[in-house]
Structure prediction request, 300 residues.
Amino acid sequence: MFGNKKKNASAIDPEQKELIENARRRIKQKRLLFTHFVVFLIGSLGLIIIANRPNVADIPRILDIQWWIWVIFLWLLLLAYHAFNVFITNRLLGPEWEKRQYDLLVQKQKDRIAQLEKKVQKEFVAPKTKLVLDQPESQRKITMIAAAGANNELGKDGDLVWHLPDDFRRFKELTTGHHIIMGRKTFESFPKPLPNRTHIILTKDTHYKTKAGIVVHDLETALATAAGDDQPFIIGGGEIYKQFLPMADVIELTRVHGSFESDTFFPNIDESKWKLVNSLHHPADDKHKHSFDYETWVRK
Prediction:
C-alpha cells in the first residue's frame, strides 16, 4: 500500500533532531520564565505606586497587612512555581526520564517475546511453515494489504504514483485496531504514525529506535509481537511483501488499472496457490484518475 521513502542525504539524524527540538523547547520555557519575571517586577512596582496613592492607601488592611502586599506575595508564589517547573520538574522528568521509562517497557516486551519463542520451540516441534500455513479457520489470518498497478507496481522514490481516496479509506477501515507490520523505510514514509494501530517496524538495523512503534529484526519476532491480534496486516514495502508471502493467509489487493513508472513491486500471485474469492470494481471519476478493483485472495 505504501512505498519506500527515499531518504534525503542531508536529513538530520532522528536522535540529533530530538536533541535540537528539546533544546528549542527549553529555550522557549526559559524565555517565558524571564518574561514572567520582568512582568512581575513591573507589576509589583505598579502595585506599590497605585497602593500609595492617597485614595487607595485608605483601603482597610487585611490581618494588619496592606492588600497590595498580599497580591505581590501570591504573585511571587506563582513565579516560584513557574521557576520550579522549568528548572526542577522538567529536568527530573524530562525527555531523558521518558526515554528511560520507554526503554524499560521495550525491554520487558522483548523479554516476554523471548519467553514466548522459547515456549513455542519447546512445545511445538512441527515445521514452521506448517504452523503458519495450516492454521485452523478459528485462528488468526495473516493478511497482506497493498495497492499495485497492472505490472505489480507499488510506487517510486517512496511515494505512490496515484491518488485513490476511496482506497485509503478502505485501508483505514480494514487495518484500524490491528497490528501493522512494515519495513523501516515504509514507516519513515508516514508523515506521522497511523492512529489506532500498533506499528511493528522490521529492520536489520539493531540500533534503530522509535517511540512510535515496536522495532523487531526478524519475521518470527514480528509475528510473535502481534500474537494477540487475530488479523495482523503486512503493509509493505516490496521486500517485506516478498518475505511474508509464504506465511500469508489472505491478500487484500487493490489492482490499479494502468502501467506506471516504479522502483518497487508487489510479488507475483501464483494462482496455483491462491484463489480469488472476491472482486469489486471501482470506476474512474473526478476524484480517482484511474479505475481499480478491490481483490481478495485466499490461500488454497
User: Anything to note?
Assistant: The chain has nine helices and ten strands. Strands lie at 143-148, 153-155, 179-183, 198-202, 214-216, 233-234, 250-256, 264-265, 274-282, 292-299. The chain has two domains: 14-93, 130-299.
